[in-house]
Design goal:
The structure holds 2 protein chains of 2 kinds. By secondary structure, chain A is α/β, with parallel strands linked by helices. Chain A contains 30 helices and 11 strands. In chain A, strands 2-3-1-4-5-7 form a 6-stranded mixed β-sheet, with helices on both faces. In chain A, strand 4, helix 5 and strand 5 form a beta-alpha-beta unit. The longest helix of chain A is centred in the middle third of the chain and has 45 residues. Chain B is α+β, with helices and mostly antiparallel strands. Chain B has a 6-stranded antiparallel β-sheet. Classes of the chains: A alpha/beta, B alpha+beta. Chains A and B meet through helix 5, helix 13, helix 14, helix 17 and strand 9 of A and helix 1, strand 3 and strand 5 of B.
C-alpha cells in the first residue's frame, strides 16, 4: 500500500467503494491475481495511474480504479487485492472475492506470475467457476525467461478455454495483447471453458443443489459456483450472498431442503467440512498441474543460486540483524547528509519570498492584522514545513522504495517474526511497521494483510510507535542540535544517523513491549499461524523509483502537511497575538500545562505544541520555536546555531531534547491516523485505545527519564 | 521403507514430499492454497536468525512457515 490520496486521504477515512463509469457502455474489468505478481504494475501501465508498486505481497489493500482505452473499447479497470484463492480468509481476500462475485465486472483479467504459474492457475480456475469472461495475463515473462522457464501460451489457452496472453508489465507495449484479448472476451460470445471436475461425491451433492441455486441466482451468479459454495457453507460468504441475492434467500424452503439433501449425500460418502475443502483444493491443484504439463517447461531446477546467496546474507543468524541495522543507518546517513544543503537553500529562498510578500502587502496598503495572519502566520509555517521536510523526504522515500522494490521488506518480516511471535503477534507486523515509517495512516490500512483479527488489532494499535515521516524532521533536528553538535563535518552526520537509528530501534523495542503488554491484557490470545511468501529479488528500476516516489509519495505527503499547516499557521498566529490580560492565549495555555510538563522534563510550550500538532506532527517543532519568540510569529529556521541558542535561552538542555524525542516517538497518533483507525476497526473504543496507549507510554517514559535525571544530577 | 517426518524436521538443503496435513481450520486452508497438497515436493531453504520460522521452496515460491505449523505438515524424505 502506497501513500496515495486513496490510502490516506479523506476518502480513505470515509470508506466505501463505488464504481465510477464515465459512460454507461464503458466496460468494467477486474484485475485479479496472486499477491505480488505485478498486478499494480499492469494497472499503472494501462491506466497511467500512480498506484504504488512494491516487491512484497499484500501491498494493494484498497481497490484502485483507473480508465484505459486503446483497443476497440474503453475500460474501467479495478485493481483488487492479491489473493491465492477466493475461498477467502483474510479481510483483503474478502474484498477481492466480493468484488469478483458481486461487483459484476464485465470481464476479469487474472494476472499470473510466469515463474510459478502452476500455483497461480489455482486462482484462474476458481475465477472461471464464477465467470467465463476471463483473460489470463501471464506476467513477468522476462523474469521467467531469465530463470529458464518456457511458457506455451497457445497450449495453455487451448486447455483453459480462455485467452492467455504473455506480458512484461513494465513494458507498456506488451500489454496491447491484453487489451485485444479483453476486447474479444467482452465483445463476442462468452468463452466456454471446461469446468474443473471434483470427486463423484462432491459432483453428486452439487448437482442436487443446482436447480434451486439456478432459480434463486436468476442469472446473476453461476449456478455451479453457488452450489459448491453452499456446500461449503462459509459463514462470511453466506452473509454476503444473502445480502446480494435478497434477504429471503436462505428462507427458501426448496433451497433448504436441497442443502440438507446435499449435505446428507456428502456425509454418506464420508466427506465432512475439512475433507470437502481438501477435495476441492486438491482437484483445483490437480487441474492446474494438468493444464501446465508440457505447457510450462523448467529448464533449470529450483531456486536461483544468486537469490540463495542474498538470502543467506540478509537472513542468516550471523548477518541478518547487523545488515538490517546497517541498511537503516546508511539510509539515514544519506538522508541527513544529502538534505542538509538543499534545506538551507530552500529556506533562504522561501524566506526571501516572505520579504517580497510583505512588501506587496505594504504597497497594497493591507491592514497589519491581515499581513500578520497570512504572511507571518500562514506563509511562514508553510515555508518552514516545506524547507524542513521536502529535502529529507525527497531522499528518504526513493531510498526506501528501492529496498522495497528489490524485495527486502519480506525478509525483514521473516527476520522479525520470531520476536513478534514471542509477543504473540504476527511477523507481518514488521511490514506494517515499515509502512508506518512513511505514514502511520498507510501503515494502519496495511494491517489488512494480517489474517487474525486479534493480531491485526495489535498491529493497528502499536503502529504509531514507529516515527512517521512527519516526525523524522523533528527527531533529526533535536539530535543534531543537542547530541551531535552544530559544528558539522562528516563524522557529525554519521553520529546523527546512528543516533536516529537508535531512536528507531527504541521505537521498535517499545512496539514489541506494547504488543506483548496488549496480548497479555486487552487482546489476550496465542499467536495464530503464519505463512509469508518471500518474492524473488528483483533489480529495482532506479529511474522509475525516483520519479515515482518523488512525484507520488513525497509530494503527496508534503501536500497533506501543507494543507494542514496553512490553517494551523493562522490559528497559531492568532493564539500568539490575541492577548487576554496582557499575555497571549498561547502563553496562557502553555502556563496552564507547564506544571505537569515540568514533571515530564518538558515545559508547557512543548506540550501545547504537541497538542496543536494533532492534525500533523510536522508542525510541532515550528510551534515550539514560534511560542518562544516573543515576536509572535514563526522564526526563519536560520542557522542551527541560532535555533540552539533560542532553545537554550528558554531553559533547554540535552535532557529536554531527550524528553521531547521520547514524547515525539510515543504520543497520540495524528488525526488522519486516528480517523483511519476508526474506519479500519469500526470502533471508537479501539480508536481511543490507539490514542491512549502510546500517550501513556510516552508520559510514563518521560516521567521516568526525568526522575532518573533528577536522581543522578 | 521411508520414514515419515514433519516438515520442521527437514534441515536447510533437505527435500521432502508432502504426505499429509494435520492442521485444521484456517491454517489448513492457507497451506492448501499455497500448494501443500499430497505428493508436492518441498525443499527447506534456510532458517531465520532466531531459528524460527524457516523458509521453504514450495511449487516455485519461497514461503516462510513457523515451526509450530511445520510440525503439522507430514513429509517423507526424498
Amino acid at each position: 500500500m502506497g501513500l496515495t490520496n486513496q490510502s490516506v486521504g479523506v476518502r480513505a477515512a470515509s470508506g466505501g467503494q463505488t464504481i465510477r463509469r464515465r459512460s454507461p457502455d464503458e466496460r468494467v474489468v477486474a484485475l485479479a491475481g496472486n499477491p505480488n505478481v505485478g498486478k499494480s504494475t499492469v494497472f499503472n501501465s494501462l491506466t497511467g495511474a500512480k498506484q504504488h508498486t512494491g516487491n512484497w505481497p499484500g501491498k494493494t489493500v484498497v481497490s484502485a480504479q483507473g480508465y484505459c482505452g486503446g483497443g476497440a473499447h474503453s475500460y474501467l479497470l479495478v485493481d483488487i487485492p492479491g489473493t491465492y484463492s477466493l475461498l477467502a480468509h483474510s479481510a483483503e481476500e474478502e474484498v477481492a472475492r466480493n468484488f469478483l462475485c458481486f461487483g459484476q465486472p464485465d470481464a476479469v483479467a487474472v494476472v499470473c506470475d510466469a515463474t510459478c504459474l502452476e500455483r497461480n492457475l489455482n486462482l484462474v480456475l476458481q475465477t472461471l467457476e464464477i465467470t467465463p469472461r476471463v483473460v489470463v495475463c501471464v506476467n513477468l515473462m522476462d523474469e521467467a525467461r531469465r530463470k529458464g522457464i518456457r511458457v506455451d501460451l497457445a497450449l495453455l489457452s487451448e486447455r483453459l478455454g480462455v485467452p492467455v496472453v504473455g506480458t512484461v508489465a513494465r513494458k507498456k507495449k506488451s500489454l496491447c495483447t491484453l487489451l485485444d484479448a479483453l476486447d474479444a472476451v467482452t465483445g463476442g460470445p462468452a468463452p466456454e471453458p471446461e469446468a474443473v471436475r471434483y470427486p463423484v461425491a462432491v459432483e453428486e451433492a452439487a448437482a442436487m443443489l443446482e436447480p434451486a441455486a439456478r432459480r434463486l441466482a436468476g442469472g446473476r451468479l453461476s449456478a455451479r459456483w453457488l452450489s459448491l459454495r453452499l456446500l461449503e457453507g462459509d459463514a462470511s460468504l453466506t452473509a454476503e450472498l444473502a445480502r446480494f441475492l435478497g434477504g429471503d434467500f436462505f428462507g427458501d424452503p426448496e433451497l433448504n431442503e436441497a442443502i440438507a439433501r446435499a449435505r446428507a449425500c456428502l456425509k454418506r460418502h464420508g466427506v465432512d467440512g475439512d475433507r470437502l475443502r481438501d477435495l476441492l483444493v486438491r482437484s483445483l491443484m490437480n487441474a492446474a498441474e494438468t493444464a501446465c504439463r508440457g505447457a510450462v517447461v523448467r529448464e533449470k531446477k529450483g531456486y536461483a543460486a544468486s537469490d540463495r546467496r542474498l538470502d543467506r546474507l540478509l537472513t542468516s543468524r550471523a548477518t541478518g540483524y547487523p545488515v538490517m541495522l546497517a541498511l537503516l543507518a546508511v539510509i539515514f546517513w544519506l538522508t541527513i547528509n544529502g538534505a542538509n544543503y538543499p534545506s538551507q537553500l530552500l529556506s533562504r529562498f522561501l524566506f526571501w519570498g516572505q520579504g517580497r510578500l510583505t512588501a506587496l502587502f505594504r504597497v497594497l496598503g493591507a491592514p497589519e492584522w491581515l499581513h500578520g495572519l497570512l504572511v507571518l502566520g500562514m506563509y511562514r509555517v508553510l515555508a518552514w514545513v516545506v524547507s524542513v521536510m521536502l529535502p529529507p523526504m525527497a531522499i528518504f522515500f526513493p531510498l526506501f522504495t528501492l529496498l522495497e522494490d528489490a524485495g527486502y521488506l519480506p525478509r525483514v518480516a521473516y527476520n522479525l517474526d520470531r520476536p513478534f511471535a514471542r509477543c504473540r503477534a504476527c511477523g507481518k507486523q514488521a511490514l506494517t511497521m515499515a509502512m508506518g515509517f512513511g505514514c502511520n495512516a498507510a501503515g494502519v490500512i496495511g494491517c489488512r494483510i494480517i489474517d487474525s483479527p486479534r493480531e491485526r488489532l495489535l498491529a493497528i494499535l502499536t503502529n504509531s510507535l514507529v516515527p512517521c515521516n512527519g516526525r523524522f524532521p523533528t527527531l533529526l533536528t533535536l539530535i543534531t542540535l543537542f547530541f551531535v553538535g552544530t559544528a558539522g563535518g562528516a563524522l557529525a552526520s554519521v553520529w546523527s544517523a546512528l543516533l536516529l537509528t537508535a531512536v528507531i530501534v527504541l521505537g521498535v523495542l517499545v512496539t514489541f513491549g506494547a504488543t506483548r503488554l496488549l496480548s497479555a491484557t486487552l487482546l489476550r490470545g496465542v499467536p495464530s499461524s503464519f505463512t509469508l511468501e518471500m518474492p524473488p529479488y528483483r533489480r529495482p528500476q532506479v529511474g522509475r523509483v525516483i520519479v515515482r516516489s518523488i512525484c507520488d509519495r513525497t509530494l503527496f505527503v508534503l501536500g497533506r502537511a501543507a494543507a494542514v499547516a496553512a490553517p494551523a499557521g493562522m490559528i497559531l498566529w492568532l493564539m500568539a497575538n490575541v492577548s487576554a490580560g496582557g499575555t497571549s492565549i498561547l502563553a496562557h495555555c502553555a502556563a496552564f500545562l507547564d506544571p505537569f510538563a515540568r514533571l515530564m522534563g518538558l515545559d508547557g510550550v512543548i506540550l501545547i505544541a504537541f497538542i496543536l500538532g494533532f492534525p500533523a506532527n510536522e508542525i510541532v517543532l515550528p510551534i515550539v520555536l514560534m511560542a518562544y519568540l516573543a515576536r509572535g510569529s514563526l522564526t526563519a529556521p536560520g542557522s542551527a546555531e541560532e535555533m540552539r541558542a533560542l532553545l537554550t535561552a528558554n531553559g533547554w538542555s540535552w535532557t529536554t531534547a531527550a524528553g521531547m524525542t521520547l514524547f515525539s516517538l510515543m504520543h497520540w497518533p495524528c488525526s488522519t491516523t486516528l480517523l483511519t483507525i476508526r474506519r479500519e476497526t469500526g470502533s471508537w473504543k479501539w480508536t481511543a485505545a490507539a490514542a491512549i496507549l502510546p500517550t501513556a507510554l510516552g508520559v510514563g517514559a518521560c516521567l521516568l527519564f526525568h526522575a532518573a535525571v533528577c536522581l543522578f544530577r | 521403507m521411508q520414514q515419515t517426518l514433519s516438515l520442521g524436521d527437514l534441515c536447510p538443503g533437505e527435500r521432502g514430499v508432502v504426505t499429509g496435513l494435520l492442521s485444521a481450520g484456517s491454517m489448513r486452508r492457507r497451506l492448501l492454497d499455497i500448494g501443500l497438497i499430497e505428493d508436492t515436493e518441498v525443499e527447506c531453504l534456510g532458517r531465520s536468525p532466531f531459528g524460527d520460522p524457516s523458509a521453504y521452496l514450495i511449487r516455485g515460491a519461497v514461503i516462510a512457515i513457523r515451526a509450530a505449523d511445520s510440525r503439522n505438515i507430514l513429509v517423507r524424505a526424498s
